[in-house]
Amino acid sequence: MKDSMDILVISEQTDDKSPTRLTLELLGLGRRLAAENNGRVGAVVLGEGADIASRELAERGADLVYFLDNPALSRYNPEVWATLLESLLRRNPASLMLAGHTSLGQDLLPRLAFSLGAGLVTDCVEIRWDGSFLFTKPVYGGNAVAGIKVLTPLALATVRARVGEALPPSSPGGELIPIDQDPPQETRLTVKDRHYLEAGECPLEEARVVVSGGRGMGGEEGFEVLRELARLLGGAVGASRPPVDAGWVPSTCQVGITGKVVAPALYVAVAISGSSQHLSGMGDSGKIVAINKDPEAYIFKVSDYGVVGDWREVLPAFLSKLRELASA
Amino acid sequence: MGLHIVVLAKMVPDPEGPPSSFEVRSEEKRVAVRGLPPVINPFDENALEAAIRIKERAGGSITLLSLGRNLSRAVILKAVAAGADASVLVEEDSLDQALLDSRSTAVLLAAALRTLEPFDLVLCGRQASDTNAGVVGLGVAQLLGLPAVTLAQKVEVADGRVMVERVLSDGYEVVECPLPALVTVSGEVGDLRYPSLQAIRAAKELPQRIVRLQDLEISLPIEAWVETVSLAPPRRERSCRMVEADTPAEAGERLAQLLWEDKVV
Fold first, then answer.
1. Which of residues 165-204 of B touch A (CB under 8 A)?
2. Could you list the residue range(s) of the whole structural domain that residue B250 is in?
3. B239: helix, coil or strand?
4. Which is nearest to B206 in space by CA: B80, B54, B55?
């Protein structure tokens, strides 16, 4: 076990080839868990230009970075990733492998779980070490929180944003190890064109302020007012599920257990009653402000500030007062 | 011969129910659901809708496959009536679908699917609304050696291949693979159509097969890979400062003032 690592983090890279913030957070989480059980933490980077992210990860907490820089890896192909990671893990046994709870992590880790015979916990909001790893995740649409242990020697987990904390750069960095294996050329899956949906002014997950609307916004026009507020606060616009289902906003705006999980410094919930699946996607926000005309709305129970009233009357006054304060 | 599509459908307590109907029993490590009817997991309903659309264009038949105990015949009937042609229920008192782990569920469903061969496409939801795991679909594919695509917002079949629009956080990508294959479906596909009363009546005549564990080629017990060790209610209540004012507009102004003073904005 001398050359084996205890914790391995699967890196995802942005279009400019640097590691995503979530990857850095996972590395910070891995570092903390590794310190508690005297293990090491490694990262694995697959991609075209993987060396760029690898160097950064080596300075941000990874003892070892396995990387494979290959043009065939410019886009995620599930079967290519699964093949490479399965053989990497067989050569270098680990006790825990972490990935983000992203479209990649949700797709890749179940494949690895069944090819390696390893227990997997998805959508973790906390991982602790108490002699073994304890994984915490929401179940029943956020109506309950489960603590789960993995019974196999290798545990796999997908983790939400902001569970771990990214570490500042430090030197000397960890060791960079090229993966000595070519990506498989024959796969059953063919990954074709990629289409970008029009995003808001800034990505939801990165925003310091999120202004979200619910069913009570009544239509697309209602969201114009929220955009104005978001612009004023330097934030992004989100939504609960009903406005997405109604087609008022694109599905990329949905905040909730099956949409985006956000934890901004300020979350403004307008005309949102507060379903469990929505709360589970924003409950960790710094301050929560609720505006709702129903005084019994559940959202007030989970908020720090509440206004009972129709947003059509509350928001214009709120906006103009904010402008007045900001210009004073 | 048209396509044979199998849709995996899990029965769950209605996830749209109010939080008060989900009682967390920590000592029993389970959630007791009060006053909520069972429903088909909404993402599995989306999968069924996707299957019906494929059948409408390409022809073929749809088998609905569900696993659990005390499966509500009314719920199954309504789902079948929306556009399926047959249903198969793997039913046993020992199979509490709320407590089965993903691995056991995948092993059982894979064994049940083997009895339904040949099939061209297996569709299921991206995750169940009770466990929120999203593991079983890919597990079934892996156990059966099927290519699998996840998080579909659109599924089309042509020339022995399946084309999937796969949801990403900032858009979607197109992924293709040969049949037979498994695809997990996301909510973007759209709601399951509502069956007419006439269709519900007609669905009562459609074939339904009950499968017992002993009918499946599996070795028991299936070893679990994970164990739930605790279950707790979410901690999310905060003490809310209600902004009082004579009019909603005035309340809006006060809210701004308050957030400013508290340095929240």
1. 166-178, 181, 186-188, 191
2. 235-265
3. coil
4. B80
Closest residue in B to A308 (Cα) is B248
Q: Residues 6 or more apart from B28 whose CB is under 8 A from it?
A: none
Indicate the SS3 state at residue A123: strand
pLDDT in tens, B157-210: 999 999 999 999 888 999 999 999 999 999 999 999 999 999 999 999 999 999
Length of chain A: 328
Q: Which of residues 42-71 of B touch A (CB under 8 A)?
A: 43
Same domain, B17 and B139: yes
Assess whether B78 and B207 both reside in one domain: yes
Asked if B173 and A191 come within 8 Å (Cβ–Cβ), the reply is yes
Residue type, A176: L
Q: Would the CB atoms of A141 and B177 count as touching at under 8 Å?
A: no
Cβ contact (<8 Å) for A75 and B187? Answer: no
Place of tokens 């720090």: A304
pLDDT of residue A62: 96
Question: B109: how many CB neighbours lie within 10 A of its CB?
Answer: 26
Chain A contact for B99 (CB, 8 A cutoff): no
B240 to A310: CB separation less than 8 angstroms, yes or no: no
Looking at the domain assignment, is residue B60 inside a domain? yes
